[in-house]
Structures are given as structure tokens and as C-alpha cells.
Amino acid sequence: MSDDTVVVWDESLLAYDLGDHPLDPVRVELTIALARELGILERAGVRLVPPVPADDDLLTRVHDPRYLDAVRIAPRDPLFAGFGLGTSDNPVFDGMHESSALVAGASVIAAEAVWRGTARRAVNVAGGLHHAMPARAAGFCVYNDPAVAIARLLDLGAERIAYVDIDVHHGDGVQQIFWDDPRVLTVSLHETPLALFPGTGFPDETGGPNAAGTAVNIPLPPGVQDAGWQRAFHAVVPSVLRAFRPQLLFTQCGADAHRVDPLADLHLSVDGQRATYLALRALADELCDGRWVATGGGGYALVEVVPRAWTHLLAVATGAPLDPATLTPPAWRELATARRPGLDVPLRMTDDVDPGYEPWQPTGEPSPVDRAIAATRKAVFPLLGLDPHDPRD
């Protein structure tokens, strides 16, 4: 296996543009610009690979052919309605099928590179459109690129793929698509569905009758900060991954759990997000011989958060993590100001937060986070042969 890291990128991925909308492609443009200015994309062993659109054979592994037809037709029909398209969340836009297929194809290229051994890790920061359903757009997502990529891995012979979703919103589309497939473990940490879209992701959602225990959901109360989030992550994710023994780790790394993100109410820092990327890489190294595919996802603090978070992700995936105290380069700050005047442009790659945490224990007075941990462990651990009350599991 090669030790290279593939970064799937060219500017054509910016065409996934919903217009005057929170999911603004400038966040991806600024991420790549920041990573380039900091020298991450020029590191030894990093290969930039252009995307290729997913064809209909790939897309229909996940999506209904009638839905593909609708995505193609909708931009040409001013009266079109249906399939979740034409809403405020999912407006119709020119080139919708082509740009959505390109994002999906980029994630497929990343996944294939890692599975075939031409790279140990791969990243598509433009991907992570995890809400799209087989026949419906949802949550800013037209085609579900993580699911398309995972389906491709299954077709190539994969027997155990673990999908970990750290977006603030539940990874509902990926969970539904693989709900009854024992070859795919879906794990999602998210703000409670009692408070946030899409209203799913409760602990008792544990997989279909043929795949019990392969859906893992950790819904967290609003306001959770780094220490609580890390406590929940480490109380559940390593245990379920070790029990499942994946051949490859696929992660959706939405940056919208940050404290200044405008669309949700978890209170993480960039430092906490960086710590999570390091934990995911360590789990891939431990369990999958390093095979790790990472995508972007949500994230609506377009200048303040997303470029820094995903630049940390790219640094972790391509080698040495960035020192949090690193200054953002002046040229990048000028570009960010030009692209979005009036927004605060960060001077450093840190929020000056220590993301340390106290490991979970099944004793003492439970906090809201501990109650969430306990509910998840109680629901799913026995299905995986684990003891929900033993902190060693």
C-alpha cells in the first residue's frame, strides 16, 4: 500500500452552488486556499487528483433512476415540483445534476484510491452531502456522495466499512441507505433531534433486522462544549469500531458543531475539531492499517471556522498536524476579506481552547452528556457483544 494521501480537487467542485444559501462554496474555496498557503498541499506524498463525475450506474446504486431524471429536468422546468427539490433548503440551480454527480464522483475516486492501495488516506472537502435520500433531496444535499462511495466499495468486495459522522446534524441519509446492510456500520454524533434537523438519530435507532447494532447514534444536548463532546466520542466510537473491525474508515467531517456556527447550538472549538481528526486518524491506523477516507460536510461560518477546521483535517490526513498557534497567512486573510467583506477573519489556527476531557465512568451523578452516553451504550453495546456498563468496553 502506498503511504500517499490523495486530495480530490479542482475548482469545478465549486459549481455545487445553491445560490443565496447557507451552503456557500466559498467555504471550500477558502479551505483549499488556506491549505495551499500553509504548504499542506505541497507536502511530500500528497497527490491532487481531479474529480470525475459519477455516472448513472454509480448513482443508481443509491438513488432511484426517476430521481436522477428529476434532478436533470428540474433546472429546465420552471413549474417543476417534487422529490424535495425547489424548496428553500434545496433550491433548483443550473447544472444541478452535473455538479452533484461531480461531488459524488470525487468521493468515489477518494474511496477507490484507498481501497485499491494507491493511497493510504484520501480527502474530498467538497463532499459529505449526507442528508440526500434515495429519491429525495434533503438538507442542502442532492446526491449522497458518502453513500455512493461506500456502495462502490461494497461492489469492489469490501465486507466491513465503518462510517463516522461528526457533523452537528444526524447523518440520516447514510444511515437509511445502509440501515439493513450488516457490512456498513454508521456512527453519528450530533445535536439532539429534539432540537435540530433532521429530527432523527435517537439512541434506539440501531439498524434493521438483518443488521442489528450497525447504526449507532449519540445525540447530544444543546450547548455541549469540547470536553463533553470528546467525552461522548471516546465513550462510544472507539468501542463500536473495535467491535466491528472495519477494513476502511469513512468519515464525514462537518464543521458545524462549532460554537459560532449559525445553524446549530453545539459549542465546539476548532481545537476540539482538530483533536477529533487526530482521534479518527489514530483509529484508522489501529483498525484499518491507516485506510481513511474523509469528506467535508456542513459548516456555515464560512470564513471564521470552516477553512481552519478543514485545513486542520487536511494537515492531519497528509502528515504532521498543524501547530494550533500557527498564524493564518496574510495572503489568505486578504482573499477571505475580498470574498466576504465584513466577516471576522481569524489570525490564528486556534480558538485557544484546551480540548481535554475526563473519560466517561458509569458512576456518580450523571450530567446531560453522561445520560446521552449511557442511552447510546445501553441501546447498541449489547448488540455488538459489549458491556454498556464497563468503561473498558
Automatic annotation (TrEMBL):
Show the InterPro entries listed in the entry.
Answer: AcuC, HDACs, His_deacetylse_dom, His_deacetylse_dom_sf, Ureohydrolase_dom_sf
* Biological pathway: Ketone degradation; acetoin degradation
Q: Which residues form the Histone deacetylase domain?
A: 21-315
Q: Which Pfam families match?
A: Hist_deacetyl
What are the record keywords, sorted? Acetoin catabolism
Superkingdom, taxonomy of origin: Bacteria
Q: Which GO terms describe its biological process?
A: acetoin catabolic process; epigenetic regulation of gene expression
Q: What is the designated name of this protein?
A: Acetoin utilization protein AcuC
What is the source species?
Micromonospora sediminimaris
Q: Which residues form the signal peptide?
A: none
**What family, per the record?**
Belongs to the histone deacetylase family.
Xref: CDD domains: HDAC_AcuC_like (cd09994)
Record-level Gene Ontology MF annotations: histone deacetylase activity
Q: Which PANTHER family does the entry link to?
A: HISTONE DEACETYLASE HDAC1, HISTONE DEACETYLASE HDAC1-RELATED
